[in-house]
């Protein structure tokens, strides 16, 4: 039974039992305190490494495309939330060390590495950024010279996903999921990934341990001495 249907039936059963209690037919409502089943937790979808590389290899035919490449590189390079990406100011960057400061949930600041490719494309974008505005603090600007909006980023990423021939819809959060999945696959360091993502609780990060059983199976096959299953 779907959870909304369960809640509907449960609510009406409880009301019916309340009526029976009021009529003296029951001493207590047996439906009181019955907890709803937990909703299934859907695993986040990610983009595989080959498709990420294809997405990033965009046609740089105008300054906004360079901006978009920089945003894509930062999103995938640091696993930022969309709100953290659009909230970046130039002062939050340290390109010499390849780091960025972001303000996450609960006003918690964290310092993150962004990777060599992201630094390179931010530098390319900064060379062109003055075409749009010179007195705006925001790192990423719209074509009107103002801080780029969440909706604009979502729209541009989706358009690039289509142009680059990806089979799945591309949105910023999917890049964050991909960052987390690929980092965990490569390092196995759940605590480290938790810190990079800015998760307050490790349980939030643990969902990524269930993402790619095929990858885990391949690791098992390659590493375990008794793994030659069926061979």
| Gross morphology | elongated
Sheet with most strands: strand arrangement? 1-2-3
Give the full name of the CATH homologous superfamily of the largest domain. Answer: Intergrase catalytic core
Instruction: Tell me which oligomeric state these chains represent.
Output: single chain
Mean pLDDT: 81
Write the layout of secondary structure elements.
Elements: H1 3-22, H2 49-56, H3 63-78, H4 82-86, E1 93-94, E2 99-103, E3 109-113, H5 116-129, H6 150-163, H7 172-187, H8 190-197, H9 202-205, H10 213-223
Antiparallel strand pairs: 1-2, 2-3
Helix pairs in contact: 3-5, 3-7
Family: Belongs to the 'phage' integrase family. XerC subfamily.
GO cellular component, one term: cytoplasm
Organism: Salmonella enterica I
Describe the 3D structure.
The protein is mainly alpha-helical. It folds into 2 domains: 1-40, no CATH class; 49-211, Intergrase catalytic core (hpI Integrase, Chain A, Orthogonal Bundle). The chain contains 10 helices and 3 strands. Strands 1-2-3 form a 3-stranded antiparallel sheet, with no helix packed on it. The longest helix has 20 residues, at 3-22. The model has no long low-confidence stretch (mean pLDDT 81). One of its GO terms (biological process) is DNA recombination.
């Amino acid at each position: 039974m779907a959870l909304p249907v369960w809640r509907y039936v449960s609510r009406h059963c409880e009301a019916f039992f309340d009526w029976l209690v009021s009529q003296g037919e029951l001493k207590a409502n047996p439906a009181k305190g019955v907890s709803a089943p937990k909703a299934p937790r859907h695993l986040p979808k990610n983009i595989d490494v080959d498709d990420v590389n294809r997405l990033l290899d965009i046609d740089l035919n105008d300054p906004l495309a360079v901006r978009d490449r920089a945003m894509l590189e930062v999103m995938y390079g640091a696993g930022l939330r969309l709100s953290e990406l659009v909230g970046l100011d130039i002062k939050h960057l340290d390109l010499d060390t390849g780091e960025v400061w972001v303000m996450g949930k609960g006003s918690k600041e964290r310092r993150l590495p962004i990777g060599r490719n992201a630094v390179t494309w931010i530098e390319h974008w900064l060379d062109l950024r003055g075409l749009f505005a010179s007195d705006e603090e925001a790192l990423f600007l719209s074509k009107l010279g103002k801080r780029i909006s969440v909706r604009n980023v979502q729209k541009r990423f989706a358009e690039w996903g289509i142009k680059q021939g990806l089979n799945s819809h591309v949105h910023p959060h999917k890049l964050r999921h991909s960052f987390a999945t690929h980092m965990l696959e490569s390092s196995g360091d759940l605590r480290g990934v938790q810190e990079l993502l800015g998760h307050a609780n490790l349980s939030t990060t643990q969902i990524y341990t269930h993402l790619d059983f095929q990858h885990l199976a391949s690791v098992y096959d390659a590493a375990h001495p008794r793994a030659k299953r069926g061979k």
